[in-house]
Amino acid sequence: MPVLKPLSGPSSEAPKQFNQPSRKGKKAWRKNVDVTDVQKGLEDRVQQIIQGGVVAEKESKDLFVLDVSGDSKISKNLPKKIKALRSDEIINQRSAVPAVSSKKRSTDGVTDGVLPEKRQRKEYVSQKELIRLRKVADGRHEQTVTITEASYDPWGASAEPKKEVTVTTEERFIPDPVTKPKVKAPKTLVQPPVSLLASGKQIPAVQKPKGGYSYNPAFSDYENRLNEEAAKVVEAERKRLAEEEAERLKLEAAARSAKEAEAAEARADMSEWDEDSAWEGFESEGEGLKINAKRPERKTQAQRNRIKRRKEEEQRKKHEEAMKRKQQQLLKIEELADEVYERERARELAKVEMSDDDSDVDDEELRRRQLGKFKLPEKDLELVLPDELQDSLRLLKPEGNLLKERYRSLLVRGKLESRRKIPYRKQARRKVTEKWTHKDFSLD
């Protein structure tokens, strides 16, 4: 339905300006804006509502229809007789009889008109064989297997004597290239690890903590542990101060000796000056000093040879005494072996007699702090001061590190050796160069 408009009179349309070169000004924002597209869209929407609804809001079944019958006018418009193509005509002219094959055929099927004699087919199981198979299935056998005892013992046969192979001297020392020597395991692989404790007792991998390590300890246990740790800290500080004092005394002694050496050099220079002045006819204050030191004389070649012979004689005597001692030990090797055995047995008995209570083991009393090149890492101080104790588990801060504790436990039990972490491993140097392959090309 067309929109009705007045024939004459003032237009109801809003003023519009199609060409707006710029909208930078404030007045040009909403003034004389071209709204033709908006008006046209609204008019189209009103027309769609008048005609039955907005097309964009309708469903597909209201807008489209599925044609299942087809258009009847198409068959009427098509010609009744369609002219065939010439190519189709050529193809249809072929004979229905197949062509004669050029392949050679056998003459078995060619006969002289006389029918052959019928013979029984052998592809199937015969009646006689079928009867025999049925008897076998029922358990009736025509022939039975007779079991006879063996007349000889297969396991009692004597082994053939091995032939002696003569090996020459050259073949004896030539290793076999195929067989590889077996790798022998070290003896220490089956021996138990040696603990670092002073008592020599093996401690468990995970020790049971004492009462002082609890997050809510008893007052007596906490006080005892606090006093022990405080005593350790005080002793360490005392040792540190003693070392500093010893270092200070050492530096003072070195400075004092340096001053004395300088003073001695100064006195020596002064004595030389006094001698020069006395020779010139006047004496200084240092004339009364007399030096009775004897100057060392140069050794002759005979004296050097005598000293060399004396040193060689002393070395020979020491070597003879050591060889005599070694010979005596070789003669008493059985006694020494028995002594070592008794000593090891006594040590094992002492270990067995020790208490099995793991709570009494103190991993701080070690027989040595260093196993190898590096020292054993110190145990972390897991102690909370009295003012840091919390009365709530939500405010509790856990102490310790499981990884460090596990590593130190392996070191104390003797299963690992102390190592130092090397963050930057020394690597091979590499030289980076640029290939000048572009020089192989030339533009003519």
UniProtKB/TrEMBL annotation:
<feature type="compositionally biased region" description="Basic and acidic residues">
    <location>
        <begin position="310"/>
        <end position="324"/>
    </location>
</feature>
<dbReference type="GO" id="GO:0005654">
    <property type="term" value="C:nucleoplasm"/>
</dbReference>
<comment type="function">
    <text>May play a role in ribosome biogenesis.</text>
</comment>
<dbReference type="GO" id="GO:0006364">
    <property type="term" value="P:rRNA processing"/>
</dbReference>
<dbReference type="GO" id="GO:0000027">
    <property type="term" value="P:ribosomal large subunit assembly"/>
</dbReference>
<keyword id="KW-0539">Nucleus</keyword>
<dbReference type="GO" id="GO:0008097">
    <property type="term" value="F:5S rRNA binding"/>
</dbReference>
<feature type="region of interest" description="Disordered">
    <location>
        <begin position="1"/>
        <end position="31"/>
    </location>
</feature>
<dbReference type="Pfam" id="PF07767">
    <property type="entry name" value="Nop53"/>
</dbReference>
<dbReference type="GO" id="GO:0005730">
    <property type="term" value="C:nucleolus"/>
</dbReference>
<protein>
    <recommendedName>
        <fullName>Ribosome biogenesis protein NOP53</fullName>
    </recommendedName>
</protein>
<feature type="compositionally biased region" description="Acidic residues">
    <location>
        <begin position="271"/>
        <end position="286"/>
    </location>
</feature>
<keyword id="KW-0690">Ribosome biogenesis</keyword>
<feature type="region of interest" description="Disordered">
    <location>
        <begin position="96"/>
        <end position="121"/>
    </location>
</feature>
<comment type="similarity">
    <text>Belongs to the NOP53 family.</text>
</comment>
<feature type="region of interest" description="Disordered">
    <location>
        <begin position="260"/>
        <end position="327"/>
    </location>
</feature>
<feature type="compositionally biased region" description="Basic and acidic residues">
    <location>
        <begin position="260"/>
        <end position="270"/>
    </location>
</feature>
<dbReference type="InterPro" id="IPR011687">
    <property type="entry name" value="Nop53/GLTSCR2"/>
</dbReference>
